[in-house]
User: Fold this.
Amino acid sequence: MLGCRKSNSAEAIIRDCFNRSHAVNCARVLVGRTTTGSSSTRVCPSGFDTTGGGNVFVTYHDAQAYGEYLIVYK
Assistant:
């Protein structure tokens, strides 16, 4: 899966206000077996690799995602 999403983090918002640039982080993400999660899910249930669905997936290990591109534009 290739995922691209505009950053909504506080650090990115501060940077955007300062230099009027935006960033899109594109990453390859290994989603494996997916199950439904909730805001209280802290650890992926046994037998699954990610939680989520639709266009949002939550991974629980850094090795599941590889940052491929960072696109910065004004």
User: Anything to note?
Assistant: The mean pLDDT is 76. Helices lie at 10-19. Residues 38 and 52 are 8 Å apart (CA to CA). Residues 2-73 form one domain.
